[in-house]
Amino acid sequence: MRFRFNPAHLFALPAAGLLVLFLLYPFLDVLRFSTWDWSGLSEPKPVGLQNYRDILSDPDFGRSLVTTLVLALLTLPPFIVLSVLLALALDGQRYERAIKALLFLPGLVTLGGASVAWYTLFSPEYGALASLLPIPRWDQEVFWALVLIALFTLWRHIGYGVLVVSARLKGIPRALLEAAAVDGASPAEAFRYITLPLLRPAITFLVVIGTVLSLQSYSAVFLLTRGGPFGGTRVLGYYLYETGFENFRLGYAAAVTVIILLLTLFFALAQARLLRGGEHE
């Protein structure tokens, strides 16, 4: 049997080494830290699984998890629905590319600059819109603070969702829709039985990505509300930051990181399997 040289073999070992270096090793290091009682300054003390047991009985962690799920419910369904509706409305229109570029533009703005702009516009006391519109007191009411973060998240990411759905929409053969119209199908029926099933892979992708972003949300909360008012917007990411870098419980924060990773994987895999299962029905 003759050996055939493949140049790709030269890159296989370095690629595997990079994978271990940048993905596996940091994760194993976090697992190691999660078994310590460590402030980052003192000597670490091995405590086994005590940090994980403390998390399960920590009411602050439970409240942060509930807040994260509420924020996901406020953000994810509108993100999916608006992405699909806007992509359908723009498909084939004269100014389709220009409008898509405008929708995608907020995602290119630096997060810090975007947060400052939103705070300046929507501050209930001195915001630029406060003199024109009744701005709810989101700095004092938890519900409106969550709504503000959800709207900010939609504003930044809706352009990406539209591009994903639109790319899939362009791949749907027009012949299928024309044949359905010839057979007497209404536009609503064509959307339900042809367009929507063929958009399912794009929707599945957006649901999984949106869930991951929701469970790992931190930046918008940190820049706009700092977990307030009254801790009502303390999502898991912000709880992790407080625990590790304000309370100096780095071992406990590492355990929280592992829990967040496991929750993210669970929800992402469950949603992907559920949506993919619908493709075969």
What does this structure look like?
- The protein is an all-alpha fold and 281 residues long.
- 70% of the residues lie in helices and 1% in strands.
- It contains eleven helices and two strands.
- Helix 1 crosses helix 11, helix 3 crosses helix 6 and helix 4 runs antiparallel to helix 6.
- The longest helix is centred in the N-terminal third of the chain and has 32 residues.
Our count of helices gives 11
Helix content: over 70%
User: Helices and strands, in N-to-C order?
Assistant: HEEHHHHHHHHHH
Number of strands: 2
Report the span from N to C terminus. Answer: 47 Å
Give the percentage of residues in beta strands.
under 5%
Low-confidence stretches: 8-13
| Biggest sheet details | 2 strands, antiparallel
Rg from alpha-carbon coordinates: 23 Å
What would you call the shape?
Answer: globular
The spatial strand order of the largest sheet comes to 1-2
Structural class: mainly alpha
The residue-averaged pLDDT reads: 86
Oligomer classification? single chain
Feature tags:
1% strand, globular, 281 residues, mainly alpha, two-stranded antiparallel ribbon
Describe the structure in brief.
With 281 residues, this protein is mainly α. The chain contains 11 helices and 2 strands; from the N terminus they run H-E-E-H-H-H-H-H-H-H-H-H-H. It has helices at 9-33, 50-56, 59-90, 96-104, 111-122, 142-170, 174-182, 187-215, 219-224, 236-246, 250-277, and strands at residues 36-37, 45-46.
